[in-house]
Design brief:
Blueprint (H helix, E strand, L loop, with lengths): L1 H72 L21 E8 L10 E8 L15 H8 L7 E6 L2 E2 L5 H6 L15 H6 L7 H10 L3 H5 L5
Antiparallel strand pairs: 1-2, 1-3, 3-4
InterPro entries: ABC1_TM_sf, ABC_transporter-like_ATP-bd, P-loop_NTPase, Type_1_exporter
Pfam families: ABC_tran
GO molecular function: ATP binding; ATP hydrolysis activity; ATPase-coupled transmembrane transporter activity
């Protein structure tokens, strides 16, 4: 009987150790599997978090590029590089607006001019006086042909402004804005920008006529 019990205990020990080893192997395998799954998910979430700013920047750049190329492809109604149009041998300078109607494209509900007319003969000095938004700057915008009127005519020397070569007529007009824009260049280059191929003599004459010679001479010479 004792031998049978001892033999039975030996068999139990063998079964016990075998079960422990199986449990250890199973637990280790399951732990490694969970570690891989959780680690993979964590790595994916981290990668997504790192990629989000890049994706946002890419999306923003794509939208900006689309707008830029749309602007490049846009053909303006008034093309400053169009070489067609009338060029006069001599320009006198009579200015006339005849029954002009105008609204800015960005403010179509606001009528700036409704049947506006005036005439300024050459050789005279005129001043436009009025409250803000009354159309003083708009007159200059029309004379420079930055815009065309909806109706009516803008005339220089009895010639409709639309018939002139845009680049040429703008070269005949000297415009000094309220807020001048200077490019990153010398004063000479900024002045010469107003006329292609301007000579030093023409630049000096322009400086003198603008009463800017004394001011410019006082600037540091580079």
């Amino acid at each position: 009987e004792e031998k049978a019990i001892e033999k039975y205990h030996k068999k139990l020990k063998i079964a016990y150790y075998s079960t422990v080893q199986q449990g250890l192997a199973s637990g280790t395998g399951m732990g490694l599997l969970l570690l891989i799954v959780i680690g993979t998910n964590a790595l994916a979430m981290w990668s997504l978090g790192q990629a989000t700013p890049i994706l946002n920047a890419f999306t923003t750049g794509k939208v900006a590029a689309y707008k830029m190329f749309e602007t490049i492809k846009r053909k303006p109604k008034i093309d400053a590089y169009d070489t067609s149009g009338t060029v006069l041998e001599n320009i006198k300078g009579d200015i006339e607006l005849k029954d002009v109607y105008f609204r800015y494209p960005t403010r179509p509900d606001v009528h700036i001019f409704s049947g506006f007319s005036f005439y300024i003969p050459s050789g005279t000095t005129a001043a436009f006086v009025g409250q803000s938004g009354s159309g003083k700057s708009t007159i200059i915008n029309l004379l420079e042909r930055f815009y065309d009127p909806e109706a009516g005519e803008v005339l220089i020397d009895d010639v409709n402004l639309k018939n002139f070569q845009v680049r040429w007529i703008r070269e005949q007009i000297g415009l000094v804005g309220q807020e001048p824009v200077l490019f990153t260049a010398s004063i000479k280059e900024n002045i010469a920008y107003g006329k292609e191929g301007a000579t030093d003599e023409e630049i000096t004459t322009a400086i003198t006529l603008a009463n800017a010679k004394i001011f410019i001479d006082q600037l540091p010479q580079v």
